[in-house]
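Why run this: before we spend reagent on co-expression, it is cheaper to look at a predicted model of the complex and decide which construct boundaries make sense. The entries below are exactly what would go into the expression plan.
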Amino acid sequence: MRQSIRRIRYILTLQCEEASRLASDELDRSLCWYEQLALAGHRLTCRPCRKLKVHLRQLRKLIQLGEQSGQLPAGSELKLSMQRKCDIQCALKELTAEDK
Amino acid sequence: MSDALRHPYQTGQSIGDIRRFDAQLVVNDPGISHLKREFFLKSSSQSCSSARCRVDLPAWVDEFGDRLFRHALLRVGDRALAEDLVQETFLAAHRGKESFRGDASPLTWLTTILRNKIADHFRRSSTNTKQWSADASLERDDVDFSCGAEPWDLDPSRIVEDREFWTVFHQCVQSLPPILAEAYVLRDIEKTPAKEVCEVLGISPTNLSMRVKRARLAMRDLLQKNWFGTNRDGDRP
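The model came back. Tokens follow.
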């Protein structure tokens, strides 16, 4: 009973700060029913929070496309140069030899 | 007190040792329930078997080098500097290999070291804080939503082709406060699972959720100010 009252209060009194957290979480996990309801209700009356949803989704889409097109290093074939890999291997060998 | 009875906290050992010591105490306790004893035995054996994991840095250079390099590049935006940081990371890992107990995956361990190296780099050069101070106020009320046209509605496939956008995007990531940038890069760009990011950053899932939210809002505001808020026909306000 107490939990239900707490959830109803949450749905009715959601503020922009918490709504923006939910908008961000929405991208990573599926929200609980009362979180979804609170967010949808808040967005009905709050234009900036409606826009935030569009902006965050657009940003995510851009990152996805950026990875596919190789514009973002995380998704590209960009690699540590062979020269540098050899340098690191040599430095590690020297350190190991020093340890012995 | 004999060494056998001393808690690892007192002998300055690692978290892995402490977990194994605690599990041993629980298992030896006659008052503990059967189920609890089984759980601790299982977790203890998992931890002990992973502790035997060997530090094979030369192999890890080939296995994880590229990924660490891309992470460093996203954070510092300079290829040579990113390579230097990766090299420093492996050398530091060699010096601290005794501390690796296999409790975390090698990539998580190396990413944590790289993260410290990047933080050291930013500490040495104050440029990052200077860039950030110009856009420091990220309260949502500061964002101007009233620009007539809505460039955010543009077709993303058109934006992606614009090389200038990616230059601005990388500058925005690098001008985020380090604490937000690392969460953003790991979570949103590298798509690292939340659990692993929490391990690397040493924070709780709730804390990570807050950091990621702040980072996303900050990125949105920075892109709004530096790219979307400008007229793409060349007539900048």
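Chain A has a mean pLDDT of 89. The first helix of chain A runs from residue 2 to 12. Bring this page to Monday's planning discussion.
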